[in-house]
Amino acid sequence: MGVKLGILGLGTVGTGTVQLLQDLQGRHPLLQEVEICRIGVRSPNKSRPVNLPQEILSGDLSAIVNDPQIDIIVELMGGLEPARTLIMTAIENGKHVVTANKAVISRFGEEIFTAANASGVYVMFEAAVAGGIPVIKTLKQSLSVNKLHSIIGIVNGTTNYILTRMQTEGSELEEVLADAQRLGYAEADPTADIDGLDAGDKIAILASLGFGERINLQDVYCEGIRQITKTDIAYAGKLGFVIKLLAIAKNQTGDKSQLSVRVHPTLVSQTHPLASINGVYNAILVEGEPIGQVMFFGPGAGAGPTGSAVCSDILNLVATIKTNTAQANPLLSCRHKEYCHIAPISQLVTRFYARFLTKDHPGVIGKLGTCFGKYQVSLESVVQTGFQGEMAEIVVVTHDVKEGDFRQSLEEIHTMEAIDSIPSILRVL
Ligand SMILES: NC(=O)C1=CN([C@@H]2O[C@H](COP(=O)(O)OP(=O)(O)OC[C@H]3O[C@@H](n4cnc5c(N)ncnc54)[C@H](OP(=O)(O)O)[C@@H]3O)[C@@H](O)[C@H]2O)C=CC1
Ligand SMILES: N[C@@H](CC=O)C(=O)O
Ligand code: NA
């Protein structure tokens, strides 16, 4: 007997998944067991780039998750509702679930995995983070024998594509965003990509797998790329850096009490392995003991790569169903019980880049230095290269400093007569 799929959503990822399942030559033979029974969409009569019998498509998604014939529900519709309710209903009906929906997993993980464990089914989500890169199973299985120190990733293809093109072409953010949407990388509402929320969902998921406990999404600090300008990209370049949107989970003390989980644009040294990850590509650098450093690289979005991740989960479930064991496989189910304590961003110790527009008065750099000194901010470099109209432009890079102290020094600097504005403040890896 074949394994019957009900797929919810036939957009970019749904199409990539169906295309892979319709072209089985040269792939794992177990995929031949898969039968696409029903597909739920918003507009069943819309023309689609895949050939399917029309009767498979339906606008009644609730009927699919309640269909007793279906073994696996593959949720590829996105958004919070009705996706969450459909996933929960599928689990209550004893169906395994595959989803690409990081927004649902990062917000409702506790509810979903508790229900899945109680129902004896698995919820798989390889496609939810870093598209085609097999990082979820790797963290859950291969790397879980390590004690992790940090996970640092470029996990949003849309913003990496935008930053790369801004850097190489000197384009504006809006011009390249339209291309990322056309290529199917961006979320239905690209705000989630641009404002760092998509990467926030993803690092919450990676951190929970890497550090063995649940993450409360509200504790994840998220800052996107809206404020990044050509000027900062150019200054970063002159100082030997590129700007990347990094998602970071780092254990500051070794005892999990100081886990820092955050997303923000970051100056990355041009010699760092993450600096050369360009376009829609993603990469995740994991450091742990005893493995040391290991980096995963690949396409983070798009139909084919994400379809590959979805089908790898389907393959695992087909193998599980065919093995027919009543025992839960602890490497596939969720083991989390508690929530991690996440340190507030004010406690972060990092280097900073800041750009100041100042009146061209003598002694401004000295006044900046004195104020920084008062708050234990020590400077690695100070550059005054240009003018923006009447204003002198000063760029500083600090040594490691506690974020709270640095912000206090900036508050005082803001009040100085010679300071016009501080157009950008970025962290440095
Ligand atoms: N795009 C990418 O590269 C990646 C996406 N993801 C995730 O995969 C999921 C799907 O993304 P993507 O394929 O890009 O999304 P799309 O917007 O391209 O497709 C969404 C699909 O779901 C259907 N759908 C959406 N809402 C409803 C609803 N309320 N009722 C019925 N059908 C609905 C749509 O139907 P219709 O076609 O009729 O409009 C469409 O087929 C998301 O969770 C996303 O975050 C993960 C990794 C990469
Ligand atoms: N919008 C996301 C798609 C994959 O998760 C991205 O750009 O990475
Ligand atoms: Na993945």
UniProtKB/TrEMBL annotation:
Cofactor: a metal cation
Binding site for NADP(+): 8-15
Catalysed reactions listed for this entry: L-homoserine + NADP(+) = L-aspartate 4-semialdehyde + NADPH + H(+)
CDD domains named among the record's database cross-references: ACT_HSDH-Hom
GO terms for MF: homoserine dehydrogenase activity; NADP binding
Gene3D superfamilies: 3.30.70.260, Dihydrodipicolinate Reductase, domain 2, NAD(P)-binding Rossmann-like Domain
Keyword Amino-acid biosynthesis: yes
Keyword tags: Amino-acid biosynthesis, Methionine biosynthesis, NADP, Oxidoreductase, Sodium, Threonine biosynthesis
Superkingdom field: Bacteria
Domain spans labelled ACT: 353-429
Protein name (database record): Homoserine dehydrogenase
